[in-house]
Specification:
The chain is α/β, with parallel strands linked by helices. The protein is built from 23 helices and twelve strands. β3 and β4 form a beta hairpin.
């Protein structure tokens, strides 16, 4: 005799018929179609009390981190952050020298996780299914048809992400990605309030664009601002996450989410994922223009602390890891100056095929999954808000995957899809993101400069005390723009101190 189980899916009551002999894994595999309908970021673990089986699952892109500790091939603990795993009594070793070198060059690691920790679900260790993907229609065969398909799929993804029983809002920077989300919300008849963060001392052009987009799409605009005081949230966020937080935009996201939370917002739509899927970064265009032959003499022409577009391009053209050079967030001379032992980051092999394809996959597998998405989750959840990324919906991703890479470059399909639905200046601006004016702020009297001068900091084995002092002096006398590098020093030191405080109880 069959039995019926009842549960809630996306706010609706669902009933499923199952046979009495079926175990949990068989039940969930049988109704995999229901799991495919889950929207937004989610991770879950379900235990079958009768059989002892455990099944885990997560959203397709990893918007909600799900980490597991394995011992002798067995899962012994899982949580969404390393801090939570540590609280459960499972050690997460300090990063090695190779990781430190990578962190002080790019602000994130090729993998931020210790050897005994993995991203779940892992089919080898658990009985589980692959990450759920949204069922999609046939991918259009032409670029013109894909433009229509992209607009329609993004509209449906936005509607799914906004289909919640709690107040939701849009993070509207004024850039192309979030502006297209605003247009999609208007198309879907969901005029959510739009929040925009502007840092003190930053260019106001993007705020003006955000206001224009909100008015054009019929969204209520809510301005959020902040100065160097937003940096004071870094210790708490580091404790929550259990990782060194090398991406300063996390602080802007948190400030915006906290402002939205004070208004009662509990779900925040964001544009993460668009640049990775649609090759929207300037570094993608630079990579496409680089010569395919390595020219090792070119980096010698570049001053050690130069970090503009041409400096990065020349270093990339002479590097064994061209894309790694384009990913660097600090000048090449910064790491050797401040680190006691400078180990260059490990080189990725030069791709045999398309450089753009390799770069896109690297962005999705590493940068997006190990930096942007954990950052969004840590920043929003600390404010009690869930971040959702419509561009990472399986339907949107499938449409993007159906296009030739060079047709994606610069997010051309997205621009074409919404060209007539947004103010024209949106598509003429340069990309800014959630960048903070760190160079300007570190010319002021920040408390973090005192932290960098403390003996406790300067006696770290991985640092050259004279190099740290030299970097501070070089920046403050305008010899080089090292605000981001100084921020990385602070972020890593705060991470070490939180680990030490936790070890002392």
């Amino acid at each position: 005799m069959s039995r019926t189980i009842h549960f809630t899916l996306n706010g609706e009551q669902v009933a499923a018929e199952i046979a009495p002999h079926q175990n949990l894994v068989e039940i969930l595999q049988q109704r995999f179609d229901l799991l495919q309908q889950l929207a937004g970021h989610h991770a879950f673990a379900v235990a079958d009390g009768s059989s002892g089986e455990l099944v885990v699952g997560a959203d397709r892109a990893g918007e909600k981190p799900l980490l597991g500790v394995h011992e002798h091939g067995e899962l012994v603990a899982f949580a969404s952050t390393l801090s939570a795993l540590s609280a459960l009594g499972h050690s997460t070793p300090l990063p090695d020298r190779e990781f430190i070198g990578w962190f002080f060059r790019q602000g994130w690691g090729p993998s931020l996780l210790p050897a005994n920790v993995g991203v779940l679900p892992l089919a080898r260790a658990l009985q589980c299914w692959p990450r759920a993907a949204t069922p999609v229609a046939v991918v259009p065969a032409t670029v013109a048809a894909t433009v229509v398909g992209l607009r329609e799929s993004l509209q449906r993804a936005v509607a799914r992400c906004a289909d919640v029983a709690v107040p939701a809002a849009l993070s509207l920077s004024g850039g192309i990605d979030s502006s297209c989300l605003a247009a999609a919300l208007a198309r879907a008849g969901r005029p959510l309030p739009a929040y925009q963060f502007l840092a003190d001392g930053a260019d106001t052009a993007e705020r003006q664009l955000a206001q224009a987009v909100a008015a054009h799409c019929g969204l209520e605009f809510r301005a959020v601002g902040g100065g160097p005081e937003v940096l004071l949230q870094l210790p708490a966020l580091t404790r929550n996450c259990g990782l060194p937080l090398g991406d300063p935009s996390l602080l802007a996201v948190h400030a915006l989410a906290a402002a939205a939370a004070r208004d009662g917002v509990r779900v925040l739509l964001s544009g993460e994922g668009a640049d990775e899927l649609l090759l929207g970064y300037r570094r993608h265009r630079m990579l496409a223009a680089l010569p395919r032959l390595r020219l090792p003499l070119l980096p010698w022409l570049v001053p050690a602390f130069a970090h503009g577009t041409w400096a990065r391009a020349l270093r990339a053209a002479g590097s064994g890891d061209a894309y790694g050079e384009l990913l660097a967030v600090v000048p090449a001379g910064f790491g050797p100056l401040v680190l006691a032992t400078w180990l260059p980051p490990p080189h990725w092999p030069r791709p045999a095929g398309s450089w753009l394809a390799a770069a896109r996959q690297r962005d999705i597998d590493q940068y997006l999954r190990h930096d942007l998405l954990p950052k969004l989750d840590a920043a929003t959840m600390a404010a009690g808000v869930e971040g959702r990324c419509p561009y990472l919906d399986g339907e949107v991703a499938a449409v993007a995957d159906g296009l030739p890479l060079r047709a994606l470059l610069g997010k051309r399909p997205l621009r074409a899809a919404f060209a007539g639905e947004l103010p024209a200046p949106v598509f003429r601006q340069r990309k800014r993101g959630f960048a903070l004016p760190l160079d300007r702020w570190f010319h002021g009297e920040l408390p973090w400069l005192d932290l960098l001068r403390e003996r406790r900091t300067l006696e770290r084995e991985h640092l050259r005390s004279s190099g740290v002092a030299a970097a501070i002096d070089l920046h403050r006398r305008h010899g080089a723009d090292l605000g981001h590098g100084l921020y990385l020093l602070v972020a890593f030191e705060l991470f070490l101190r939180t680990r030490e405080e936790a070890a002392c109880g």
